[in-house]
Write a structure and sequence with these properties.
- It is built from 18 helices and 2 strands.
- It is an all-alpha fold.
- The chain is globular.
- The N terminus is likely disordered.
- Its main location: membrane.
- It comes from Photobacterium angustum (strain S14 / CCUG 15956).
- One of its GO terms (molecular function) is potassium:chloride symporter activity.
Amino acid sequence: MYVPIKTDNHKKRWSEPQIIIFSFLAILIPAAILLTLPAFSVSGLSFADALFTATSAISVTGLGVVDTGSHFSTSGKVLLMLLMQIGGLGQMTLSAVLLYMFGLRLSLRQQALTKEQLGQDKFTNIRRLVKHIIIFVLICELIGIFFLSLRWVPQMGWEQGLFFAVFHSISAFNNAGFSLFSDGLTRYVDDPLVIITISSLFILGGLGFTVISDIKRNAHRGFHFLSLHSKIMIIATPILLFAGTLMIWLLEHHNSHTLGPLNESGQWLAAFFQSATARTAGFNSVDIGKFTEPTMLVMMLLMLIGAGSTSTGGGIKVSTFVVAILATWSFLKQRDRVVLFKRTISNQTVTKSLAIIVVSGILLTIAMFALMITEKAPFYEVMFETISAFATVGVTAGLTATLSEPGKYIMIVVMIIGRLGPLTLAYMLARPKPTLLRYPEDNVAAG
């Protein structure tokens, strides 16, 4: 909660949302300027395109207005990897890492901000937590590099094959969706080594550091001792993956432009990959623009739900979706509490979940309306692209490559809000002011 504190020069402290947003911009703007330089871009890049690309990388979205593999030099690709890693970890976590590397201590406020970003309580040892996160990230990415190298080093040689493996491993674990192949991963649509390695990376990254830490801490004690949030993620994630895979296969296995040409095992692998990637990863192993409209709707729903809180993914978050569904079910059953696994979910959590959904809906509606004015595109393409940007997914139905300059700036704002969270923006624009004043309750007819 924001509490104004007067200093000697009568200046107010910045609120936590303001610090997060301005630290994000402090990395974004210099990175965009660098991408306009010849050393980073092979054929030059306008500031609008550079800002779009930098935003897409640091927000781990993956939408691109130029081809990543051919347009950027090696330096540009390394910069994109750095931005993806920063975006996946989060600015506050990165700040903690840098300070600890130089033997400095975090201030109490920096510790509080880092804990808030990682979803931890005030008793958490932040130094130990950050250390475990970095180790986990490095282990996952190194394993990904090893398996991807098995495929690409024999095909491309050591230097290029290893570089491709490093780039795609970082992009996958951070749910960024950038690929050095101009056609995404369509050439590997039925290659289990590439598809399973990359999907495993972004599923792990999408679970969230809180869940991974909880599992590590309580693995020997069993499922019962995990936090309620971890239980929700562990159960909801495979359910969403299975439901998405089944729906995509049912709707697309006869489509000659997507899954139709593949054998049965290839069809299921492709359906699984697109179901998983819709949960904010952004890679594609088939041409998304060739999907039927019912499949596009399934993809949009999966994108909107997104990944886990405190993860490298976006969306409204799985736990938010589950809490909203449970709250609706409790209301229909005329229960005054939302209960799951013999635990009561607080009213504050329920209210926050509903607020995230409402604010997200409002922001998406405004963005879609603006894009329908600036772009000449079918409504479903505008809707798909906007949700993809907001949920930091990065899959495209083809609109991003043809965006007008105003459209690019609209999408930049949508990606930033999607990564930082709609409530962060809402808190910044409308600072909560604590008050002891209470008014009498009254009823409003609803429904």
